[in-house]
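Q: Predict the bound structure with flavin-adenine dinucleotide.
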Amino acid sequence: MAPFRLLIVGGVAGGASCAARARRLSEEAEIVIFERGDFVSFANCGLPYHVGGVIAREEELLVASPQLFRERLRIEVRLGTEAVAIDRARQLLRVREVATGRESEERYDALVLSPGAQPIRPDWPGIDLPGIFALRTIPDARRIRGWIEERRARAALIVGGGYIGLEMAENLLRRGLDVTVVEREAQVLPHFDPEMAAPLAETLAAHGVRLRLSETVLGFEPDPSGGIRARLSSGASASADLVLLCIGVRPETELARAAGLEIGERGGIRVDARMRTSSPRIWAVGDAVEVKDVVTGRYGPVPLAGPANRQGRIAADVIFGRESSFRGAQGTAVVGVFEATAACTGPSEKALRRAGLWGEEGPFEKIILHPGHHAAYYPGAEPIALKLIFRRDNGRIVSAQAVGRAGVEKRIDVIAMAIQKEGTVFDLEEAELCYAPQFGAARDPVNVAGMIAANVLRGDARIAHWENLEGFPGLLLDVRTEEEVGRGRVPGAVHIPLDRLRERLKELPRDREIWAYCYVGQRSYLASRLLSQKGFRCRNLSGGYRTYLHRGGRVAS
Ligand code: FAD
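A: Predicted complex:
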């Protein structure tokens, strides 16, 4: 009898992990990977750092070679071979050798599609001019490096301020280029809320990256100086020797569409939790598929390496009879830009608002805090801006975002796991996390976030949010020190330092609500507790003056 034949389209994150897992489950199966490109199992996440020279040699990006697949795993890798059609009725995959155009048909018992995604390339005028690149593959990185070296490029224009755009900004600056980032939204990192992305924009600007926010490109034309000139929506133009398009990716679904597989509303291949497509014997994984968001329950692509790897493994499990299933995605991600790190898990407030799920009396509440990444008494503590979104009714954690210089991703990873296990803010309060002075605090930022949120839900701390300040009829109270206020304050705020508050209660109104703030929200929490116990109606402005600044609030001197 012919051996069970597993064919895999795409040999990088999802495809390679599926193949390797499949071999661990079956010694008998025949496993073949078809990869259109010249590399299998390479680290696309490392590409920006290769362009920047941090990863010096291209070979370091190669996680596994065809030889290793063959000798260690008895998996056949056919490089330079594109899958062009699926005959579902006859269980045949038609493949074409890219170099020769020669086609053949391959029988399958199970077919896994992991073709990834394509960088978006809008049909702007001049988009095909030489010097305009996207970064997805090793040959792309080669072309970009070659262009920089041959042309002695001095200025780069990056279109898109998302993860890859910002990583490339850092890496091109590292290579000595003058870097401008054009971003359509009014902030960098559009996946984040604006007040959380603001510190990263400050870091970029401090390193000399020019940010052109709320602008987009209308088209390109050759620059008389020999480079490329981009026409921008503001009417201005920007010239560069090199343009990088980092405006997102589109699931690669041509093969699946032509085979009649179900495609979701957001353009990815529709799969169930066991990574099965609408056709029996065909599975799909990675950037090409739509998966269920664990929080919103909605389907959409989540183009990240972690989910792609796990999905590849799950598809192999299911094909070989195991009870595996994908729990859903929450978009847990991290980006490092110079000395700053930003990380998130679950939907941002912005995304929830866009989905119509956020309202003033809606199901969600948020807090922002700025704890140190380790104990304050140990030298070198760096603040982390941490935002936690949770449900008002049961305290379930919905999402978190954090930005800072150290310890950022560790906190988001802990919260990501709590979300996956349907944890609550009360669980974060109680989480037992490791502590020594150089690593954390006896009350870790994750614990503190849980405590603040739990205080809100228990009614011990009433909070207010900066976006509701306009038109607020009550009294705005600044409880910071004289010296801090001297550096700037919110217009219209009354200043009474926390340490003087008890003796100056007579100055405060009893017929109007008081919103208190300090620099990060901790002293104003004490103030609001004090005032509430003295019979005042008081709320604490979450995130404090620091968050106010990150929201771009006006400053009175
Ligand atoms: P891919 O890894 O893209 O593999 C798909 C492969 O399929 C490609 O090699 C393609 O050539 C091949 N293929 C497509 N169609 C066919 C066909 N018809 N026949 C044969 N072969 C075909 N994610 C993170 O989580 N963290 C990061 O830091 C991060 N950084 C990134 C940086 C860059 C520059 C890029 C480009 C991506 C980054 N990602 C990151 C995203 C991550 O790399 C992807 O989510 C992941 O690789 C998706 O895996 P995949 O198997 O779905 O697709």
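A: The two ends are 84 Å apart (CA to CA).
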